[in-house]
From TrEMBL, chain A:
One Pfam match: AzlD
Residues spanning the membrane: 6-24, 36-54, 60-78, 85-103
Species name: Pseudonocardia sulfidoxydans NBRC 16205
Name assigned to this protein: Branched-chain amino acid ABC transporter
Coiled-coil region(s): none
Phylogenetic lineage: Bacteria, Bacillati, Actinomycetota, Actinomycetes, Pseudonocardiales
Keywords: Membrane, Transmembrane, Transmembrane helix
Signal peptide segment: none
Repressor among keywords: no
From TrEMBL, chain B:
Protein name: Branched-chain amino acid ABC transporter permease
GO cellular component, one term: plasma membrane
Family per similarity comment: Belongs to the AzlC family.
Taxonomy of the source species: Bacteria, Bacillati, Actinomycetota, Actinomycetes, Pseudonocardiales
Organism the protein comes from: Pseudonocardia sulfidoxydans NBRC 16205
Membrane topology per record: Multi-pass membrane protein
Domain of life where this protein originates: Bacteria
């Protein structure tokens, strides 16, 4: 039950952040906050993605790290040239499968 | 809308919304395909987290955001302090403030109710698809059309997310490791970051955030993410002050 309450609390907090400027018509973030907000997306998403690519499932190992980093590189290049999310993602995953298969 | 009658740009007062909603659903399909591997992994992680699978899955309707769901359920399963779990998940989701402020600029003419309802559906891919359409030269149509498109994209992705994460939870333990679905989650986030890297400060924020999070990944329970995020935001602000 405690766990559900934690999830509800996060849900309410998240909903309020989603509604913060959208639901209050015309509200704009203060200039100083707006300047910081711009960097939240790249900073947070990179901070989630990079550690998980360097150490998949929490371990740095040849057969875990190499496929993940190669997949990331291929996905990045595929995205740059096609701007297609599914193509880049599945391209990266296929490379991860292939290198994992080769290394094990 | 009826006041538009006679104006040279008059469109039929009640242009049919069906094509708009269908367009929205069609635009959502490739994005859903791209989210399937991550959704399946997340579902499997939810089921294996050590807390009741149904409670874990309820994070899908409650949070509707994979990154925060993953963090919250992993930390809860590891028995982390409640304050750390809530704080960590809210920091992960703080980018919703940015999306909210940005989307608000395209929501003129939406009713209060539509805004409160729309806020619930505001997630990374919904935001990306909606902004892609609203920043076209025609602005994505009138307020009614834009709202129909936004709600169409949002409800399609929402429904798919509920289904895919549930499927992942049911398939937990059946999905072979060789599929490397563990790579799917970080790859998805990487592909969310890339479109944001349009300026020097954005690059600085992402590079610093990622590097510091890697360096700090030995810290207990999600703290590396918080440290990395804070460092990334600071770096972005610092470079932004110099380069505008």
């Amino acid at each position: 039950m405690g766990e559900l309450l934690v999830l509800v609390a996060i849900g309410v907090g998240t909903y309020l952040m989603r509604a913060a400027f959208l639901a209050t018509a015309g509200a704009r973030p203060p200039a100083a906050v707006g300047r910081l907000l711009r960097h939240v997306g790249p900073a947070v998403l990179a901070a989630i993605a990079l550690p998980a690519l360097v150490a998949p499932q929490g371990r740095v190992a040849l057969d875990a790290t190499v496929p993940a980093l190669l997949a990331a590189a291929v996905a990045g290049v595929a995205w740059k040239f096609t701007r297609s999310l599914p193509l880049a993602l599945f391209g990266g995953l296929v490379v991860a499968w292939a290198t994992t298969w080769l290394l094990t | 809308m009826s006041t538009a009658t006679g104006s040279p740009r008059a469109v039929p007062a009640q242009a049919p919304l069906r094509p708009v909603v269908l367009r929205a659903a069609a635009d959502a399909v490739p994005v859903i395909a791209a989210y399937v591997p991550f959704g399946l992994t997340l579902g499997a992680t939810l089921a294996a987290s050590g807390i009741s699978p149904l409670v874990a899955w309820s994070s899908s309707p409650l949070l509707f955001g994979g990154a925060a769901q993953l963090l919250a359920v992993q930390l809860l399963g590891a028995g982390a302090n409640v304050a750390v779990v809530v704080l960590g998940a809210l920091v992960v989701n703080s980018r919703m403030l940015l999306y909210s402020a940005s989307l608000a600029q395209h929501a003129d003419g939406w009713s209060r109710r539509a805004r409160w309802a729309g806020a619930y559906l505001l997630a990374d891919p919904v935001y990306a698809l909606a902004l892609g359409r609203f920043t076209r030269p025609d602005g994505g149509g009138d307020a009614r059309t834009r709202l129909a498109y936004y709600l169409g994209v949002g409800s399609t992705l929402w429904t798919a997310w509920m289904g895919v994460t549930a499927a992942g939870a049911l398939l937990a333990g059946v999905l072979p490791d060789g599929l490397r679905l563990d790579v799917a989650a970080p790859l998805t986030f990487l592909l969310l970051v890339l479109p944001m890297l349009t300026s020097r400060p954005a690059w600085a924020a992402a590079a610093t955030g990622g590097a510091v999070a890697v360096a700090a990944s030995g810290l207990p329970l999600g703290l590396g993410l918080l440290v990395g995020s804070a460092a990334g935001i600071a770096a972005g602000a610092l470079v932004g002050r110099r380069h505008g």
